[in-house]
Amino acid sequence: KEALASVGGSTAQIIGLIVGFFTGLSSGASVIIAQFYGAQDERSVRQSLHTAYAFSTLGSIVISVLGIALTPSMLAWMHTPEEIMADSVLYLRIYFAGILFVFIYNMGSSVLRSIGDSKNPLYYLIICCFINIVLDVVFVVFFHMGVLGVALATFLSQAFSALLVTHKLMKSEGILRLYIRQIRFHGSVMKSQLRIGVPAGIQSVMYSITNVIIQAALNGFGTDTAAAWSVFGKLDAVFWMVSSAFGISITTFVGQNYGARRHDRIRKSTRVCLGIDFLVSAVLVVFLIAARVPLFRLFTSDAEVIRIGTEMLLLITPWYIIFVFIEILSGSLRGIGDVIIPMILTMCGVCLLRILWIVGALRIQPTIPVIIFSYPVTWIITSILFIFYYFYRIKKMKI
Question: SS3 for 365?
Fold first, then answer.
């Protein structure tokens, strides 16, 4: 359980914060490319692609240096238990050393999805996952490398996925072809990408910051709780990956139709995407609740960790369906370039309110359920805000 907490506790929250912010930034590139692609503006599409790759490369260098240097301080600030500190530092520093591959894959995949190609990023990720699994077994089971082996497996598999997506773009026959020698910043395109990407990145960071704060609060309950939260995070990620996929799809679809001036399809596609995401989320909720104990036993045999973790899951997962409104409506608004108000709604409804809840809860009743309940409370309030704003925005556009 110490190794489990090292890889998936505080380290996972820090990684989520950094990668989440960059994923938000990359959405700026995907929205701009989708709009230019819809308008059949070939020159702007090419400039956007090469600017996105230049930004990914420069950004990864900065994050790597800062991440490696600040890892001990960040983990200490999150009250990471002393018995897992050394392994947590080791894992996180190796992850930051390979952040270039993470950024390149996320940006390249985002670019491919912006023109409707979601299959190839999926294939590359499947290959990456199998490589990661095989290397995990080889390094941990056969060579007994522990946390170091897990970190190296992640590093190498991510490097391969970055190479695959870059190779695909370099061999593309359409208007979206990457030329290594043409990778550089184009001022006007970069400005447009940052105009959408920065607020989207900040919006993503709002979620991550509150998760970091909650992780820090839960770490105070000891290694059992940190390990339980770590396992729950792995299961929780199943929902977030699926839901965010629908968010990406509606952003791309709305972006292309907005660029092509097919405004009549924006509202209808948002409604359809909401319905699909609701259905899939309901299935995931039922599955996670019904199979919670066997799923936790895949990660640990510690009875106390399983007990704490399954209780966490029962408190949070039924409320996933409420979050669908935030994911889809935010994605739809991003597709038309509206990112400032969604960022403010997220900042107030999720981040600020959740922090206030945690601070107040720890003073009144410092228990795990009270801390966990900050999720459904803030999701409900933020969803209501997004619903009102979405209909206001659509009405203003006369769609």
Answer: coil
